[in-house]
Design a protein that fits this description.
Elements: H1 2-18, H2 36-81, H3 83-97, H4 106-128, E1 156-163, E2 166-173, E3 179-182, H5 193-200, E4 204-207, E5 226-229, E6 232-236, E7 243-250, E8 255-261, H6 262-267, E9 270-275, E10 279-282, E11 285-286, E12 300-306, E13 311-316, H7 329-338, E14 341-347, E15 355-357, E16 361-362, E17 379-382
Length: 408
């Protein structure tokens, strides 16, 4: 009996140590002690909370994963199976085609699609150069007068142009007879346009024709097609072909652009010209119908002429995210039309596109890696006195075997 009483006292003492007395509280009013369930909860709580937190994070990750999968599948269906997605896909492919990694376009439109796209553009560009140009020009207000006096209008002016995703510059030359095609000073490699401008004392200049560019690391010495300056053929790379797409000026300052034979050019009194394509405007109308036919987004250089004779050189920067992605040929055509061009044609673009003012100072931001743009075989430069500029024929006496476009 005594043993039982001792056991009961011990049990009650232990119970008081665990279970709070509702009649005893702390100074803050909270009861002293905690129950067994409370004690268990306080002990197990942190571990359980961590498990719940991990489960919540995992559920969110799984949900995010499936959202990404569904969005990706939706994008693939749209990109490859819908008309709007296909249009975007081909515009992206066109942009890739204009770069040094043309072959990558096959991942967007397939190898056969790439071949068909390039062939279609070549045929389209050929057709765009066939219509006969009948535009006539008046004596520009800024041209040199017959009595030797100069008009008050400046020979050159530069304005900025902007569009959706691109930034560029428009050089206006008031007297087209002040433009000369200039080539590098020495044989063996091309020359950067800033160097040409500074060396010759030109007022301004832009890049002109294309050139052989093996592995996109060419030295800029071998032009494509024809190079004509002062009415003389400096370079003829046509081979068996007797005609080419040309961009240039006759001796009276009228712009000539389109598909011509060498004899036709001579009969027209050609003075300065390079081979390039396509022609964008003829007889005051644009030849490119829409952006889908604009041959991708890239840096661009375009030459045009107004009815009053003024020459327009448009240079668009590109391939620089956050500044200027580039423009397609439809963008360039529309800018030229808005500024009154009655004829316009594309010149070499991409990393060659460059606009330079007096002293060799760059106006635009070329996408080329090297400072001042690429080494090029030709540039259209503007002079106060073009007749005083000597342009040596660096290709005279050379055969195709003597010209290595990859040797520096």
């Amino acid at each position: 009996m005594r043993r039982h009483r001792l056991f009961d006292r011990f049990a009650k003492r232990q119970e008081r140590a665990i279970i709070p007395n509702p009649h005893i509280s702390t100074s803050g009013g909270a009861p002293v002690g905690r129950s067994r369930s409370e004690a268990h909860s306080r002990t197990a709580g942190p571990a359980g909370g961590q498990r719940r937190k991990k489960n919540k994070i995992w559920r969110r990750f799984v949900a995010f994963f499936w959202i990404v999968v569904l969005l990706s599948l939706s994008f693939i269906v749209w990109f490859f199976l819908t008309p709007s997605g296909t249009s975007v896909r081909y515009r992206l492919a066109d942009a890739v085609i204009t770069t040094q990694h043309r072959e990558y376009a096959k991942y967007l439109i397939g190898e056969n699609g790439l071949e068909r796209r390039v062939a279609a553009y070549a045929e389209q560009f050929q057709d765009m150069g066939e219509e006969k140009d009948t535009h006539e020009i008046a004596m520009p207000a800024g041209a040199q007068q017959e009595d030797g006096g100069a008009a008050s209008e400046p020979l050159t002016s530069i304005e900025e142009v902007d569009g959706k995703g691109f930034h560029g510059y428009l050089l206006t030359v008031s007297d087209p007879t002040k433009i000369r095609l200039v080539v590098p000073a020495k044989a063996g490699k091309g020359e950067k346009v800033p160097s040409m401008v500074e060396r010759t004392g030109a007022i301004a200049g832009v890049n002109a024709g294309g050139f052989a560019d093996p592995n996109w690391q060419g030295n800029g010495f071998q032009p494509i097609g024809l190079v004509i300056t002062q009415g003389k053929i400096y370079y003829n790379g046509l081979g068996k072909n007797s005609s080419t797409q040309i961009v240039g000026l006759d001796k009276k300052g009228k712009m000539i652009a389109g598909h011509y034979s060498i004899q036709e050019l001579m009969d027209l009194g050609i003075s300065e010209a390079v081979s390039f394509e396509p022609r964008l405007i003829v007889n005051g109308k644009g030849l490119i119908k829409n952006h889908a036919n604009g041959w991708g987004i890239a840096p661009r250089t375009v030459m045009g002429q107004r009815a009053d004779g003024k020459i327009l050189f448009l240079v668009i920067d590109g391939r620089q995210v956050g500044y200027s992605i580039g423009a397609d040929l439809y963008d360039c055509q529309q800018i030229m039309l808005e500024h009154g061009a009655v004829i316009a044609a594309n010149l070499d673009g991409g990393s060659s596109s460059v606009l330079v003012k007096k002293g060799g100072e760059l106006v635009n931001k070329p996408s080329s890696k090297g400072e001042g743009g690429r080494y090029l075989p030709t540039a259209f430069l503007v002079f106060d006195d073009p007749a005083s500029v000597q342009v040596p024929n660096i290709w005279a006496g050379l055969t195709s075997a003597d010209i290595d476009p990859s040797k520096w």
